[in-house]
UniProtKB/TrEMBL annotation:
It comes from the Bacteria. This is 4Fe-4S dicluster domain-containing protein. Gene3D superfamilies: 3.30.70.20. Residues 12-41, 43-72 form the 4Fe-4S ferredoxin-type domain. One of its GO terms (molecular function) is iron-sulfur cluster binding. Keywords: Iron, Iron-sulfur, Metal-binding.
């Protein structure tokens, strides 16, 4: 496991699987940080991934398993 620099915040990736999503909006309703919004066509889209805390509420409540939240992988530091 890599160590983060002091004070560095963990960041997350939010992925929406379009083929599984029925655009019900539950992920938008449950996101406490407003990271996901509905677009003009009524489909959820990630608008503020930097605000995500990784709570997973969107993922847990999605009836179609169409959303995934995971820790963003940090690039490995090169040995000197």
């Amino acid at each position: 496991m890599s160590q983060r620099a002091e004070g560095q915040k963990r960041s997350y990736e939010i992925e929406i699987f379009r083929a599984w999503c029925k655009s019900c909006g539950i992920c938008v309703a449950f996101c406490p940080r407003q990271c996901i919004e509905m677009d003009e066509d009524g489909n959820p889209q990630v608008v503020a991934p930097e605000r995500c805390t990784g709570c997973g509420w969107c993922e847990t409540h999605c009836p179609d398993f169409a959303i995934s939240v995971r820790v963003k992988k940090e690039p490995k530091a090169e040995a000197v």
